[in-house]
Amino acid sequence: MVALILSMAAGCSTDDIPRFAMPEPITEQGHRILTLWQGSWLAAWFVGAVVWGLIIWCVIAYRKRGEKVPPQLTYNGPIEILYTVVPIIFIAFLFYFTARDTNDINKLSPNPDVTVEVVGFQWDWQFNYLTSADDKTARTEAQVTGDNAHGHPATLELPAGKSVRFKLVSPDVVHSFWVPSFLFKRDVIPGRTNQFEVTIDADKAGHTYIGRCTELCGLNHDQMIFFVKVVDPATYKADLAKMSAQFNSGSSS
């Protein structure tokens, strides 16, 4: 039954099912996360309905009808096997779908279209546009640094419909890179490079989304915001060339 519910959820558009408090996803990976979330909720509602139905049925069917003591049973083998096996089956199906989607979300492509090094530091963000995802050959071709202390958050510009690799690093303490509309976040840890990829929906060009740090990182943690500006690939290419020229001339936005 769990498999049926999750399969139905996977086969439907996410617009046809309530999002259960989740933001609207803007990436391919976000849609997969939302589908898993919706399927889990539907499975939970189904289990809840069955449990409450059994409780109500027992209350009505076995209510007290007199002073006669009802038959006393010490155990019921088939029922005990049933309520042990059925939850195991439910959990096994949920584990399968969760593991499958987690592996898909964590998958890294050999050559992403865009690679951005995200530097989280107290208390701001720096985005380095890299020439490739290869650590040995990559170099920074453009850079954007925020100035939240003076009301100028960094804006990360990304192309719609293209794969984007994020490399997360920190020179000081643990931060967390979170864009709510990605339906995903990942910690930014000193001495370690965390990575993930997203592909933003092609129809999201022209929209801007907010991002935040979600790991308490010190006094001004609350001001660590940034913006993600989604543009069409042609606009991104032109803007990247401008940012690259500024960076190579010794200035960055």
What does this 3D model show about the protein?
This protein is of the alpha+beta class. The chain folds into two domains: 2-105, Helix Hairpins, CATH 1.10.287; 114-248, Sandwich (Immunoglobulin-like), CATH 2.60.40. 35% of the residues lie in helices and 25% in strands. It has four helices and ten strands. The strands form two sheets. A five-stranded mixed sheet has the order 3-2-1-5-8. Strand 6 and strand 7 form a beta hairpin. Helix 1 packs antiparallel against helix 2 and helix 2 (28-61) runs antiparallel to helix 3. It starts with a helix and ends in a 5-residue tail after the last helix. The model has no long low-confidence stretch (mean pLDDT 90).
CATH topology of the largest domain: Immunoglobulin-like
Q: Kindly, what is the distance between the CA atoms of the first and last residues, rounded to a whole number of angstroms?
A: 54 Å
Helix content: 25-40%
CATH class of the largest domain: Mainly Beta
Note the topology.
Elements: H1 2-11, H2 28-61, H3 77-105, E1 114-121, E2 124-130, E3 140-145, E4 154-159, E5 163-169, E6 175-179, E7 184-188, E8 194-199, E9 208-213, E10 225-231, H4 233-248
Parallel strand pairs: 1-5, 4-10
Antiparallel strand pairs: 1-2, 2-3, 5-8, 6-7, 6-9, 9-10
Helix pairs in contact: 1-2, 2-3
